[in-house]
């Protein structure tokens, strides 16, 4: 497939990657652009401008991009992809601290009235304001031009408002694309297909049939070089406020009236606003905070968070929360979420645990159904069903549980075919932004409703002086993380 000026009528598309030499750009964004190019999703005349502080020149910049893309994509990279991508790229050295930022970019862009510009600000959020001001002053912000921004969007409601206000001055909400890369993952998008493309789940998708839901994002790595940033944020701000709450929204939201961006996001906001506040009264039973200590994780000895930092810290590297949604569909069915660093395995999974049969004619052999949605390390969706154990036994019928798998990879494996390449989540999101579709991006009121709830938890921690409990690196968090779920009878994490 090959397209020409796909984005906006006759205007030529320009993708301006601000922070084009940075870590995120090299590991995710350039490889995503290369794959979109390889698969024919970029219009033939699309240009890419890399903007960064480094004055490395286009030649050196594209060499570095080539190395990064080759490393990330490996065998799936076709021989002529890099050559095609290179022709599109120009690198421009611009420092956001200098007033001529906008004018210099404008000179590079050419006739801006004939362009459809997508800016990706892959820089520290402290630069969003000056960069948006430069863009606006140079008149480079006019519709249809739009901007993509990455987390963190603030560290609480107040700071997120400052960031959002500074971006809103230059770009209206419809042209502001806030990335949560989890929303670009194939299995996360499949959640929408599964829930709203099938009739079988909807009648059961409520507190009458579902006992509880678990969402886990486990990382084996520690904070590493991100310690300076991480110590200010911790697990609740770094992972729960965004990725975990987005997953919770997709699981709990009402069926939207359409697949349009506002219909989807209206329903997600309603979920966030229905979350019961966690206060000083229930923070001890509804949350757990942990910090990794010495141990062994990701195949290496770990000194422990405070040893790595070199001073005491009140930052949590593990958080678990029992969330309750106060509406008719979910009252009585909690959603347990947890995330942490230096845990024993790298996995992201959702468990939807159905209730047991109201009356089992098979006795305790009939185990309750469970829907397991795995995002990492493999993408897989499986439904555990009860089945008659095949064969003849003297005692009569026995049950066994069987997994009904919706895994694309397994389906291809069994046919002996090559499975489809696993896409980088940013590919989907960059393509949507190029096409002006913001359904899978986070709207301002979503970000703010999420911060509002999270701020309440952080305040409750402060008010009750709740410190993180140490857990040995390489274990699944502190004892309080287990107690959080096991306190509720019959429930355990799906470790
Ligand atoms: P980085 O430090 O590796 O790169 C920053 C980029 O910004 C570089 O290209 C640098 O030239 C440019 N830059 C810095 N100061 C500048 C200035 N004054 N003027 C112009 N350009 C300037 O950062 P990163 O890890 O790529 O992260 C970029 C953003 O994405 C950050 O907000 C980060 O929090 C967020 N993020 C990163 C990751 C990741 O995996 N790296 C993941 C999620 C979110």
Description of the molecule:
It is globular, with a radius of gyration of 24 Å. 36% of the residues lie in helices and 20% in strands. The relative contact order is 0.13. The chain is of the alpha/beta class and 495 residues long. The model is unreliable at 1-6 (pLDDT under 50). It starts with 11 loop residues before the first strand and ends in a 9-residue tail after the last helix. The strands form 3 sheets. The chain has a 9-stranded mixed sheet, sandwiched between helices. Strands 3-2-1-4-5-6 form a 6-stranded parallel sheet. A two-stranded antiparallel sheet has the order 9-10. The protein has helices at residues 23-38, 57-73, 81-88, 101-109, 128-137, 157-170, 186-196, 227-252, 261-274, 283-286, 305-309, 408-415, 425-434, 444-463, 479-486; strands at 12-18, 47-52, 89-93, 115-121, 146-149, 176-178, 210-218, 287-293, 295-297, 300-302, 318-323, 335-340, 347-354, 370-376, 380-388, 399-405, 469-472. α1 packs across α2, α5 (128-137) packs parallel to α6 (157-170) and α8 (227-252) crosses α14. The chain folds into 2 domains: 12-150, 3-Layer(aba) Sandwich (Rossmann fold); 183-423 and 444-486, Dihydrodipicolinate Reductase, domain 2. Nicotinamide-adenine-dinucleotide (NAD) binds next to α1.
Layout: helices, strands, pairs:
Layout: E1 12-18, H1 23-38, E2 47-52, H2 57-73, H3 81-88, E3 89-93, H4 101-109, E4 115-121, H5 128-137, E5 146-149, H6 157-170, E6 176-178, H7 186-196, E7 210-218, H8 227-252, H9 261-274, H10 283-286, E8 287-293, E9 295-297, E10 300-302, H11 305-309, E11 318-323, E12 335-340, E13 347-354, E14 370-376, E15 380-388, E16 399-405, H12 408-415, H13 425-434, H14 444-463, E17 469-472, H15 479-486
Bound molecules: nicotinamide-adenine-dinucleotide.
């Amino acid at each position: 497939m090959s397209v020409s000026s796909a984005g906006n009528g006759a205007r030529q598309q320009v993708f301006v990657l601000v922070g084009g030499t940075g870590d995120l750009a090299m590991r995710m964004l350039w490889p995503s652009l290369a794959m979109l190019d390889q698969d024919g999703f970029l219009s033939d005349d699309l240009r890419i401008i890399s903007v960064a502080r480094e004055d490395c020149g286009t030649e050196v910049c594209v060499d570095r991009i080539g190395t990064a893309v080759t490393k990330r994509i490996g065998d799936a990279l076709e021989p002529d992809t890099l050559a095609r991508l290179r022709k599109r790229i120009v690198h421009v050295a611009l420092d956001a601290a200098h007033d001529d930022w906008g004018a210099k970019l404008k000179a590079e862009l050419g006739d801006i009235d004939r362009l459809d510009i997508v800016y990706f600000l892959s820089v520290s959020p402290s630069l969003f304001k000056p960069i948006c001001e430069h863009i606006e002053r140079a008149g480079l912000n006019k519709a249809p031009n739009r901007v993509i921004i990455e987390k963190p969007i603030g560290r609480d409601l107040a700071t997120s408002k400052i960031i959002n206000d500074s971006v809103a001055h230059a770009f209206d909400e419809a042209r502001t694309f806030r990335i949560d890369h989890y929303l670009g993952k194939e299995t996360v998008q499949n959640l929408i297909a599964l829930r709203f493309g099938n009739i079988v789940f909807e009648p059961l998708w409520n507190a009458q049939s579902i006992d509880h839901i678990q969402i886990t994002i486990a990382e084996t790595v520690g904070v590493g070089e991100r310690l300076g940033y991480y110590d200010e944020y911790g697990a609740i701000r770094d992972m729960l406020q965004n990725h975990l709450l987005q997953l919770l929204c997709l699981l709990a939201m009402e069926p939207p009236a359409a697949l349009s961006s506002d219909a989807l996001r209206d329903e997600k906001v309603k979920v966030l606003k229905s979350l019961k506040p966690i206060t000083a009264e229930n923070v001890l039973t509804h949350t757990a905070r942990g910090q990794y200590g010495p141990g062994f994780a990701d195949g290496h000895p770990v000194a422990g968070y405070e040893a790595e930092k070199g001073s005491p810290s009140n930052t949590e590297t593990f958080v678990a929360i029992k969330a309750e949604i106060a509406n008719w569909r979910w009252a009585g069915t909690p959603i347990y979420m947890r995330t942490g660093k230096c845990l024993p395995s790298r996995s992201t999974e959702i468990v939807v645990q159905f209730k047991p049969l109201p009356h089992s004619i098979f006795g305790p052999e009939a185990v309750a159904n469970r829907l397991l949605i795995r995002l990492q390390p493999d993408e897989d969706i499986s439904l555990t069903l009860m089945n008659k154990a095949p064969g003849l036994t003297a005692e009569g019928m026995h049950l066994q549980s069987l997994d009904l798998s919706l895994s694309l990879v397994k389906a291809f494996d069994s046919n002996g075919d090559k499975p489809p390449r696993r896409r980088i989540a940013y590919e989907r999101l960059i393509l949507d932004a190029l096409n002006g579709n913001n359904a899978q991006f986070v709207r301002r009121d979503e970000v703010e409703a999420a911060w509002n709830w999270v701020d309440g938890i952080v305040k409750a921690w402060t008010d009750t002086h709740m410190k993180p409990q140490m857990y040995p690196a390489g274990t699944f968090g502190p004892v309080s993380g287990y107690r959080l779920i096991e306190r509720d009878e019959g429930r355990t994490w799906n470790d």
